[in-house]
Design brief:
This protein is of the alpha+beta class. It has 1 helix and 5 strands; from the N terminus they run αβββββ. Strands 4-3-2-1-5 form a 5-stranded antiparallel β-sheet. The longest helix has 9 residues. The chain starts with a helix and ends with a strand.
């Protein structure tokens, strides 16, 4: 995924499924470096992780 698509997903009201390593995640924010994003797993766990945006896949 690229920076522009991450920004589009963050500004969208639609429920867009994004996966990281085969697991559905919510994108919380695009980090200042423009290469990473803070995400958390869909579901009850709120544990946040910083990942490379090129490892995110839109389903």
């Amino acid at each position: 995924m690229d920076t522009n698509r991450v920004k589009q997903i963050l500004s969208s009201s639609a429920d867009i499924e994004v996966k990281y390593n085969g697991t559905s995640v919510w994108i919380d924010k695009l980090n200042d470096d423009g290469r990473t994003a803070t995400v958390h797993l869909r579901g009850p766990l709120e544990e946040r992780t910083i990942v490379e945006i090129n490892e995110l896949i839109e389903e």
